[in-house]
Design a protein that fits this description.
Length: 286
């Protein structure tokens, strides 16, 4: 299941590129990778984020750092207003040894070393930096660089984050299966509310059940059904946050056929029960 190589355009700086993504084509680039480190701040959008073998919902104000060549993509929730994100790509020159090995950059160097796992920062951290994101692209080159360094230093000093791929994620960039991961993602997105069989999904990518099962587990470091259940749990979390539906309703709306199984899976992936998840979310906002 090969990720696409995404070429990153250059601008006047040899160290980094800042891009404001304001349309679906820019934002919903298929499952892809690039040698640049990527720091993405979501100004306006919500949907599902894939980084390595991680699946999470994303919302306005999300801030994520992705390491070099770590495959990823963002998929918007259908029928919403256009997405808007500020994306910073740190080029190879940014990590120049003479620059990064100096004591001034010690914390930033350690942060970038951890980014191979994908780092999702707490919303309080992202909100504190929001004024810098709002003006970053409009600044003169030197101001832009110093502002970016302040952002990275702030992120390097905080403890309010979690890893998206806790055990890391190695990926074979020479695989010949260019489109298959996107087919799997899109199929799950459209059909997660009904029962998806292994035969069904394997057929969509022109593989036998056995080969697809082995291949998916090898590449994604989890079985297809673990991946599918994690997707459904994240859909359930979105409903818990955005609606006042009963938990039993949410169970079936997220594609689960059994309430006890739904509770077990929720505990597995979120380490709490659905009711507590909803309460904790709203408590954090108050």
């Amino acid at each position: 299941m090969r990720a696409h190589f995404k070429p990153i355009r250059s601008d006047e700086s040899k160290l980094f590129t800042v891009v404001v993504q304001e349309d679906e084509k820019q934002f919903e680039y298929p499952w892809h990778y690039h040698p640049e480190y990527e720091l993405t701040y979501i100004k306006k959008s919500h949907g599902v984020r894939y980084v390595g073998n991680s699946i999470e919902n994303f919302f306005d104000g999300d801030l994520v750092l992705i390491g070099s060549n770590l495959p990823h993509c963002w998929i918007n929730t259908p029928h919403q207003q256009r997405a808007e994100a500020v994306v910073v790509y740190l080029k190879e020159e940014f990590l120049d040894k003479a620059w990064m090995d100096s004591c001034e950059f010690d914390a930033i160097r350690k942060l970038l070393a951890l980014s191979g796992k994908g780092i999702k920062f707490d919303k309080t951290v992202a909100n504190k930096l929001k004024p810098k994101w709002d003006v970053l692209q409009t600044l003169a080159p030197l101001e832009k660089l110093t502002t970016l360094l302040h952002i990275l230093e702030e992120l390097a000093r905080t403890k309010k984050y979690h890893f998206l791929c806790e055990y890391g994620f190695s990926y074979d960039l020479n695989s010949n299966h260019n489109e298959r991961i996107n087919i799997v993602y899109k199929y799950i997105e459209k059909h997660y509310q009904k029962k998806i069989t292994l035969a069904e999904i394997a057929d969509k990518v022109n593989m036998s059940e056995e080969y697809f099962s082995r291949f998916f587990s090898k590449v994604m470091k989890k079985s297809f059904f673990e991946f599918l259940n994690e997707y459904k749990i994240n859909r359930a979390c979105k409903l818990l946050i955005e609606t006042d539906k009963q938990i039993s309703e949410i169970c079936y709306a997220a594609g689960f056929e059994s309430i006890p199984f739904f509770y077990r899976q929720f505990k597995k992936f979120k380490n709490c029960q659905p009711k507590n998840y909803r309460v904790n979310y709203y408590s954090a906002l108050s």
